[in-house]
Amino acid sequence: MSMSSSAMATADDDWVDVAEEFCGPEEWVVLVGDEGSMSAVFFFGRAAAIIGAGVAPPIPTFAPADAAATARRCGRVLLPSGVTGDDAVAPAPPISIAGPGDAVAASRGRVLLSGPWSRYYVLDPSSGERHALPPPRRSSPHDAAIASDARGGCWVVCAFRGCFEIYASSTGKWREMPSAAAAGVVPGSAASFAGCVFWKLAASPGVLALDVAMGTTREIEPPPRCSDPAALWQLGVAAGHLCAAVRAGGGVELHGLGPGPTWKLLHGICGLAVDGVDLRPLRFESDNYEVLLRMGERVVALDIVEGTAREARLDGAVLPEEDEKIVPWCRAASTLLL
After folding, report:
1. If we measure between CA atoms, which residue out of 172, 231, 232, 234 comes closest to residue 198?
2. 90-118 CB burial, b ≥16 within 10 A, e <16
3. What pTM was computed for the model?
4. Cα-flanking dihedrals φ and ψ of residue 193, to 5°?
5. Which long-range contacts (CB under 8 A, 24 or more apart) does 121-126 make?
6. What distance in Å separates the CA atoms of residue 314 and residue 170, rounded to the nearest whole number?
7. What confidence tens digit (pLDDT) does each residue in 267-293 have?
8. pLDDT tens across 105-155, in order?
9. pLDDT for 33-71, tens place per residue?
10. Which of 128, 136, 132 is nearest to 157 (CA)?
11. Of 3-7, 31-35, 155-159, where does mean pLDDT reach its minimum?
């Protein structure tokens, strides 16, 4: 499905080419990686880091059946930096998200940008096209997310105290959905999957699920190991599952949601923790089993099944202290309408 402004059923057809209109040479980003893999991370709005196409040597992994045995024989390994393979993918044309707005969320190849005066923009980094949304009725939401609909369009969801406001690209309009739960979502924790947006909750260890089309919410129990407020975990999408990446000792476990409102251990990896290195899961999205990890001042895309890793090349950029300001971008396997 090709992308064109004539196909957009939106209120403001004001497409611009981001690379042409806004980019300076120092702001250009080269995106690499296969479709369905995490290709870049965005932070501080204007900054972006490429996730390289090469892989690091395998790291011990375990499936649920052999978790205990694998954990006993795992050593402690620090992922190597700057490893590239012979199978590196040719880089795509340089693209930037420079211009109005800071990256706040991403889903299925689109990046949601938040600008001054509660303005929002949807960007497709693959094409460099950007679309401005009409402003929501209210101002200053405490979080925003983006999700794909079944027709190839998208929704943008803003969480306010007492309600969600939901923008549909199919109508070009916002609608209000009253909800007391909206005030309790953790900013920067949203993951979008199957027409729903999922957030961590601030007042409980659970997960809030918003069915965007139906306009309903439900609370789901937290993943295993995550009932403790001090637990380190993040929501994301991997291999066709809504998932949670959970810090487990010196490694990471990947839990998938379903069938039903229950969590199941999919895979795990150990031997990542090193003395003095702070290992924390970040938001993630991939069509394979990649999760995104922060290891001190490094960001690594780690395949939980294969035990291979690709590191984001920061090129001197400084990561924000807040993990929620790091937004992963996955090159979508198909071109979708904004």
Report:
1. 234
2. eeeeebbbbbbbbbbbbbbbbbbbbbeeb
3. 0.79
4. -160, 130
5. 122/146, 122/154, 122/156, 122/169, 122/338, 123/18, 123/97, 124/3, 124/338, 125/29, 125/31, 125/40, 125/95, 125/97, 125/329, 126/31, 126/92, 126/95, 126/331, 126/332, 126/335
6. 37
7. 988 767 666 678 899 999 998 899 999
8. 999 889 999 988 889 999 888 777 889 999 999 998 999 999 998 888 899
9. 455 677 778 876 555 666 765 555 555 555 565 544 443
10. 136
11. 3-7
Q: Supply 107's token pair.
A: 């889903």
Q: How many residues does the chain have?
A: 338
Question: Would you list the domain boundaries of the chain?
Answer: 5-330
End-to-end CA distance of the chain: 12
The rounded distance, in Å, linking the Cα atoms of 281 and 222 is 16
Q: Which CATH number fits domain 5-330: 2.120.10, 2.60.120, 2.60.40, 3.30.2450?
A: 2.120.10
Tokens of 313: 């090349």
Rounded distance between C-alpha atoms, residue 309 and residue 158, angstroms: 33
